Amino acid sequence: MRKNIKCKIILINMFLIILFSIVIFITKKYIYEKGENLLYIEEQKNNNGEITEGNSNTCTNISDTMKVIAIPKKEIASNITDWNLILINKNNKIPENYEVILSDIENNKVDSRIAEALKNMLADARKEGLNPIICSGYRTESKQIQLYNNKIKQYVNSGYSNEKARELASYWVAIPDTSEHQIGLAVDIVSKSYQVLNDKQEETEVQKWLIENSYKYGFILRYPTDKKEITMINYEPWHYRYVGIENANYMKKYNICLEEYNDYLKQFEQNLV
């Protein structure tokens, strides 16, 4: 009797799995035929229950942790190899022999190709009576090493092991050769009235304006609070990255970060959707 019940349960589970697969297939086929692309961002949990980034090119199962974005093909004309979309993070180091031509702007340096857009954004913010200040632009490798090591020392002095200190530091200061500051496409902007780099920065009028308007000039808030599991960097309401006006508009509209956008472009170019 128990054996029969067990067999029935197995058969029912198999039936549900097959049915679920058919539903997914039909749904994807319908959307594709409507001329739309799907961006799959699957969040998976590791053995510790922590959320990690899943494989964005697969859709093996649907659950509450999977985010599916349907995006019309016609909205995107960018290429993943465009200079302003280069992805630099813990998994993507700065290419060897990467060269950047710099321009001076308010006692800092940035990639010359973003200087005009940055000047315009700051000028328009000031027209609104705000006082944004660039506290960091382009950084040399040696400067990034110095900042990273200083952060490690802070954690070590707080009682953490050297290994743990390195791990924690990497969520606040990018590991050398994985920082967007080293390619001149990122700037840290703060309010003149509040220049501390912490979460309270988002409460300043400067950040409220930038978060709402930076995309109009081609900049994105690079490390949003709801994307920490994907960017692998803690929330930084002062770090802005240039990606171009079209791309910034797109990411703002669909609330996706550069990693997600990068995955979408890969799928699009490889005809995976």
Total count of domains: 2
What overall geometry do the principal axes of the alpha carbons give? Answer: globular
Distance between the termini: 47 Å
In spatial order, strands of the major sheet run: 6-7-9-8
Name of the level-1 CATH class of the largest domain? Alpha Beta
Q: Which runs of at least 5 residues are low in confidence (pLDDT < 50)?
A: 28-66
Which percent bin holds the helix content?
25-40%
How much of the residues is beta strand, in percent? 15-25%
Total number of helices:
8
- Main β sheet profile: 4 strands, antiparallel
CATH fold-level assignment of the largest domain: Muramoyl-pentapeptide Carboxypeptidase, domain 2
Arithmetic mean pLDDT: 82
Element string (H = helix, E = strand): HEEEEEHEHHEHEHEHH
Number of distinct beta strands:
9
Radius of gyration: 22 Å
The CATH architecture of the largest domain comes to 2-Layer Sandwich
Classify the secondary structure makeup into a structural class. Answer: alpha+beta
